[in-house]
Design the sequence.
């Protein structure tokens, strides 16, 4: 098949084709390198060449094609489109993982997903990315550079752009792996110019052809325009002789010629629809006043005539104009009908709003100067658009409003507050939320409830970011009101906003220890999110449920954490901070039950994904749980570092976090156990009165008393805890208090009382197999002193002693240097199958994972172990003692 240059830059119909075999051959040669860049100005014929070349996709060389839409600000949507194109192209990949956007984009994880998909395909694949200059989001070029650097040997990539991009191509250029096609290469030769004119039915003298070629300098768009203009001109030779000038002048002149030759009804449609990025027949009829699909027929005829009108779908229902053509049409419209422009924008805005296209509707409202309706529509859709990955677009739309307009507009005040929270401007966000709340009182009744819910949800979000929970739940308690029917109020509210409100309410209730209410609202939010197809909100709710579920049992907490993590991984969000709470809670739960080694990879992963989390409560939880695991492993100094880090986060919070007492208590206790008694006393003396009443602080004070040799004081200190009058976070605080009481009784020589306190601790620990408090308090001797025939918890007692004995063991042989990044628990599970003969699909079935998830884990294993293939990874893992030397499993 030969490449063909159409008279339209993007056209897929028409018959006037020009064979450009030399360019096709140039691309064939370029494809032997790793990367090809086609960089040339608008109208140079880049897209025509790329599409013609891509049409030659064969089973031996498949081609995945992506065209970046105009002004693509949301990089995540570009990567999802690229990934979807790859999957459609590789029909045999059997990928089960769905593709969904997230409110926050994690570029490195997304690039890893793409590389993992490519790594699995054994055949030859070409990725074609056209109009790359339209990808305007910050950091996009760096992320694309990372993709280029990691491309498998069997993958080639072709990039089409109007300008050179910062893609770190110098190394590829030096190594001979970069091919470049420039504007000069794309220019028509004189022979191709003659062929283009001939296929358009034009017979010119050789001199006229040479003149036309010289004056257009072989510019593809200029030649196409000339062919269109010449077809209607009574004296083509004279026409060619008379026009001249630069490319831009040629384009303006020729497009004007072409437009003037169109009938009046065609000119009217072209001018009035030129304001649109895309148009269909119904919308064009609305903007022209035509009826009976008249505009659609005009669009079809123009495309068939290659008049710079291009269909965007196979059914030829949506169209757009070539950029040069569209720009001139818009200039002409403003010159001839300036008063009509705002009304045309309003018509387009209303049509797009009615057809569920809010972004285009808002843009046209703004262009019409209809700021109030634009702010209302943006406020209505802001939560949904954020979930759909349009965060940067929202930011641009908000930025387009005139300065100061937010001060008198409740909807716009809310939108600015949302942007302030995203950017970390929390004081400004608080002021704007207050203003939005005030203006809400004068908002029309049909919008008041929705606005109040949105404001309340953002106040909860702000409370999370600031750690200021005092009274906030009471202020927004109307959010918890159940809506059981599809009332007008619920329809106005919108399910996305309702689910988000339940999520934020549940999180704040969790951090204020309203755990029953938190569980109810998070479950309700997860159910609603599942019903409306919002997996990210569902994962968010499930990920938070684990913490509150400890009030039932640690088994339920683990189950809910694992459910959240599995759902996140199924959607490719294994490295998204949305699962940080679930990872930390799961790791912490394993630490509580003495599985310290098993807890470690979950906690490392939690630390990694929460590194940039703006929500301090989650980061505090990660440090606290990691410190617990360090205590269990006997690494007290490392534990203290984690507790101090959590304490530092608490110090920046305005109010008291639910875990603040535990953080402070264990910081004090760990300092005492490290012999830092003076520092422990200093910290204890600085504890705020509100925090000091908690059982966790009373326990820490008892640890100081015991270290000072005053067991009687210790007993007095913990008495209110063991008697149940001091508030505690969970039963594990009571277990710790009974063990401290046992230590005090033993020091006073009352072994019977000591054994009784140990038995009460065992009884409280039995249901959830709580082992950490016994390790943390160094209670081995207390347990060994309990006669086996006198305890009702002998099995648990023996388990605890086994864990304590094992936790202190250390090999005398120094371990090999660990990998730069620790493997996660799931990666370790996948690693154990690599020495076997199982394929990745078979490993996936063994582990109940999708093939794509296994691919991602294998790619990460190779990267972390600095391995190039499966055998190298196995050898490296054995060196690191991640695998036994005898076998894999």
Sequence:
């Amino acid at each position: 098949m030969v490449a063909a240059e159409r008279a339209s830059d993007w056209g897929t119909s028409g018959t006037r084709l020009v064979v450009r075999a030399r360019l096709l051959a140039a691309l064939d040669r370029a494809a032997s390198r790793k990367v090809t860049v086609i960089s040339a100005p608008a109208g140079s014929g880049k897209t025509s060449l790329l599409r013609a070349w891509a049409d030659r996709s064969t089973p031996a060389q498949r081609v995945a094609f992506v065209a970046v839409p105009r002004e693509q600000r949301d990089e995540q949507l570009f990567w999802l489109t690229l990934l979807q194109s790859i999957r459609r192209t590789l029909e045999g990949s059997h990928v089960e993982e769905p593709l969904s956007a997230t409110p926050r984009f994690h570029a490195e994880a997304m690039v890893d997903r793409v590389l993992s998909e490519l790594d699995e395909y054994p055949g030859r694949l070409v990725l074609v990315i056209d109009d790359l200059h339209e990808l305007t989001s910050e950091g996009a070029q760096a992320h694309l550079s990372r993709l280029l650097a990691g491309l498998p040997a069997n993958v080639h990539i072709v990039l089409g752009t109007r300008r050179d991009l910062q893609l770190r191509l110098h190394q590829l250029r030096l190594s001979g792996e970069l091919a470049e096609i420039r504007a000069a290469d794309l220019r028509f030769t004189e022979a191709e110019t003659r062929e283009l004119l001939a296929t358009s039915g034009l017979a010119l003298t050789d001199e006229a052809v040479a003149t036309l070629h010289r004056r257009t300098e072989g510019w593809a768009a200029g030649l196409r325009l000339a062919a269109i203009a010449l077809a209607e001109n009574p004296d083509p030779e004279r026409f060619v002789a008379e026009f001249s000038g630069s490319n831009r002048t040629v384009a303006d002149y020729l497009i004007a010629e072409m437009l003037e030759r169109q009938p009046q009804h065609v000119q009217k449609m072209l001018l009035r629809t030129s304001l649109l990025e895309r148009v269909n027949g119904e919308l064009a009829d609305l903007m022209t006043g035509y009826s009976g699909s008249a505009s659609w027929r005009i669009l079809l005829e123009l495309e068939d005539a290659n008049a710079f009108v291009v269909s965007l779908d196979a059914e030829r229902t949506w169209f757009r104009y070539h950029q040069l053509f569209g720009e001139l049409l818009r200039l002409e419209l403003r010159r001839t009908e300036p008063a009509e422009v705002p009304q045309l924008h309003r018509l387009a805005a209303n049509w797009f709003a009615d057809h569920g296209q809010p972004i285009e509707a808002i843009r046209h409202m703004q262009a019409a100067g209809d700021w109030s309706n634009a702010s209302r529509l943006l406020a209505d859709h802001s939560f949904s658009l954020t979930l759909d990955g349009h965060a940067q677009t929202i930011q641009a739309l908000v930025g387009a409003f005139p300065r100061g307009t937010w001060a008198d507009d409740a909807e716009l005040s809310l939108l600015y507050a949302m942007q302030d929270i995203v950017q970390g401007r929390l004081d400004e966000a608080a002021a704007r939320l207050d203003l939005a709340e005030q203006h809400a009182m004068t908002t029309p009744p049909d919008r008041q409830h929705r606005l109040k819910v949105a404001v309340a949800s953002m106040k909860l979000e702000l409370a999370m970011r600031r750690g200021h929970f005092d009274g906030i739940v009471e202020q927004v308690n109307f959010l918890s009101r159940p809506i059981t029917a599809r009332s007008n109020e619920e329809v106005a509210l919108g399910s996305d906003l309702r689910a988000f409100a339940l999520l934020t309410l549940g999180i704040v209730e969790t951090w204020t220890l309203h755990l029953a209410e938190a569980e109810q609202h998070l479950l309700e939010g997860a159910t609603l999110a599942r019903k409306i197809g919002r997996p990210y909100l569902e994962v968010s709710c499930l990920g938070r449920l684990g913490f509150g579920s400890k009030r039932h049992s640690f088994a339920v907490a683990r189950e809910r954490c694992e459910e959240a993590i599995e759902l996140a991984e199924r959607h490719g969000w294994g490295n998204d901070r949305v699962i940080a709470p679930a990872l930390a809670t799961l790791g912490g739960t394993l630490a509580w039950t003495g599985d310290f080694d098993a807890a470690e990879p979950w906690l490392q992963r939690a630390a990694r994904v929460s590194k940039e989390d703006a929500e301090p409560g989650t980061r505090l939880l990660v440090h606290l749980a990691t410190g617990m695991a360090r205590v269990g492993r006997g690494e007290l100094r490392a534990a203290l570092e984690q507790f101090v880090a959590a304490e530092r986060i608490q110090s920046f919070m305005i109010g008291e976090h639910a875990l603040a007492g535990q953080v402070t208590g264990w910081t004090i206790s760990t300092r005492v156990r490290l012999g830092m008694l003076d520092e422990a006393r200093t910290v204890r003396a600085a504890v705020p009165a509100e925090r000091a009443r908690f059982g966790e602080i009373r326990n820490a004070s008892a640890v100081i008393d015991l270290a000072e040799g005053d067991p009687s004081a210790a007993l007095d200190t913990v008495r209110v805890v063991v008697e149940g009058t001091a508030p505690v976070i969970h039963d594990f605080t009571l277990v710790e208090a009974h063990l401290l009481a046992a230590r005090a009784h033993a020091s006073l020589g009352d072994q019977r009382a000591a054994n009784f306190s140990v038995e009460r601790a065992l009884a409280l620990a039995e249901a959830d197999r709580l082992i950490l408090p016994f390790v943390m308090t160094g209670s081995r001797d207390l347990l060994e002193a309990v006669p086996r025939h006198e305890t009702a918890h002998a099995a648990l007692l023996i388990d605890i002693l086994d864990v304590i004995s094992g936790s202190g063991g250390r090999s005398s042989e120094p371990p090999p240097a660990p990998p730069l990044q620790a493997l996660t628990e799931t990666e370790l599970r996948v690693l154990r199958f690599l020495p076997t003969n199982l394929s990745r699909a078979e490993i996936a079935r063994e582990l109940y994972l999708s093939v794509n998830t296994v691919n991602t884990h294998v790619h990460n294993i190779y990267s972390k172990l600095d391995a190039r293939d499966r055998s190298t990874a196995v050898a490296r893992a054995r060196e690191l003692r991640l695998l036994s030397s005898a076998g894999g499993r």
